[in-house]
Amino acid sequence: MYLYRVGMDQFHTHEDFIKFYNELVKIYKIDKKHILSKIREKFRYQYDTLPKDITDGYHNQLYKLKVALEIQFMRDVKCKYKFIFFTPINFGCDLRELIFNNEREILRVSLLDNINRASRYFVTLITKQKIPHILTDLDDTLYPNHSFFTEISGRDHSWKNKEPYPGICTFYKIFYSNLPIEASRYTTLLTATPLFLKESKLEDERLIEILGQKFGFIQGSEKKREIIDIMFDSSNNRSFYNLAPSAMKIGMEKFKKFCQYSQIFPEYQLLFIGDNGQGDLIAGKMMIENNSEVLVFIHNIICDGDYLFTKTQECEHQMTTDGRLYFFKNYLELAYIFTNNLRIFTKQQYNEFKEAVKIDIINGLEKDMNPDKHLYEHYTYIHSRTHMSPKSSISISDLLR
Q: What are phi and psi of 93, to 5 degrees?
């Protein structure tokens, strides 16, 4: 029986994984309706009673398969997202779309059950602990993107528009370097970006510069009517802590996609990074309420010349989050939290990161004879109205030398 089962399901080496993955790509291009059944069958075998070298190899390949189906598959099958007027039934190219856009509920439930059992084995016997994984917003989180469509883009003026925040590229390089498994060294975007823009974002050079060559991408609404409703939403006002009128709809959509993603990757310790301009804070607080392990980090943006939230407002939001909601004003402060609160970065890595932030600010301002103070001032002293400020700061003389 042992030889029969192994022979029937050779999936213990990298070569086995490559062969099966390439087979899925071919099947999808011919007739994609069989894809999910093929994936489920691969996760059906658990091999819990077999020798450890065979079992570990099997579950390692399963994990690599999930990652490839998230970050690579949509690229390899050349998925077309650019339809604007309708979304086909059962549409999907990455793993989340394949599972949750599928109308066959019994198939979806059984696959998720198989994934969950395989993930428990992976964490218990292979990684020994959950793998930190970042879900990040895009606008005002990776770079400022204030534009006409502020309800679905950004409002932050703390740095030059559409330029990566100082130090952010180094931040992700350090984060990846601390992850135990090479396949886990990537990030997933959780964004309000509508479906028809996803294809272009996958090849966005700015995103590749920040996050690396490959990254996951979870888009916002997939229906045209919902996108229009968000863009022109006037159903509520900005009295809710100055959030955009569409914040609730965007936040609910992101929370829904977060719940889907967490079922696919139970082996991840999820870290959500967003901002307080649109719906990320709403989504993050719902994540904390419904997931006992997620940590949420919110960029307190600068809008109309000052931070969008006061220190008091930050504290009000943190009161019921069991210490799992952090606010930060720049990536130097976020790196400080990762170092001193979470021990994800080492102190040496934090010092290296601090130097990288200095260099990025200097290079970003070098062509400006009289740079606006708001572009660097929040790096140079501890602002009295921020809640999670590092004890260290960058001196003005270092930045303007």
A: -130, -30
Give SS3 for 163: coil
CA 283 to chain centre: 13
User: Is the Cβ–Cβ distance between 295 and 341 less than 8 Å?
Assistant: no
Same domain? For 298 and 243 the reply is yes
pLDDT digits (tens, 9 = 90+) for 222-280: 765 555 555 555 444 444 555 665 788 899 999 999 999 999 999 999 999 999 988 99
210 and 61 in one domain? Answer: no
Both 82 and 197 in one domain: the answer is no
pTM > 0.85? yes
Given a contact cutoff of 8 angstroms between Cβ atoms, the answer to whether 291 and 322 are in contact is: no
Same domain, 3 and 14: yes
124 pLDDT above the threshold of 90 = no
Residue 70: per-residue pLDDT = 98
Residue corresponding to tokens 């570990």: 56
DSSP state of 139: B
Residue 185 carries which DSSP code?
-
**Mean pLDDT across the chain:** 86
Rg (CA), the chain: 22
Task: Say how many residues make up the chain.
Answer: 401
- Tally of domains in the chain: 2
pLDDT, one tens digit per residue, over 347-363 is: 999 999 999 999 999 99
Tell me the C-alpha distance between 113 and 40, whole Å.
10
Residue whose entry in the numeric block shows the structure tokens 């990536």:
331
2 pLDDT above the threshold of 90 = no
Residue 81 region by backbone torsions, left for phi larger than 0, else alpha for psi between -120 and 50, else beta:
alpha
Same domain, 144 and 28: no
Q: What is 66-81 written as a DSSP string?
A: HHHHHHTHHHHTT---
pLDDT band at 54 (very low <50, low <70, confident <90, very high): low
Domain region containing 41: 1-128
- Backbone dihedral region for residue 331 (phi beyond 0: left; psi -120 to 50: alpha; all else: beta): alpha
Half-sphere exposure of residue 141: CA atoms within 13 angstroms, side-chain side: 28
Backbone angles phi and psi of 72, in degrees to 5: -115, -35
Q: Please give the average per-residue pLDDT across 357-381, as a whole number.
A: 85
Determine the angle formed by the axes of helices 52-71 and 14-31, rounding to 10 degrees. 40
Q: Which two tokens stand for residue 136?
A: 């990040």
φ, ψ for residue 306 (rounded to 5)? -150, 170
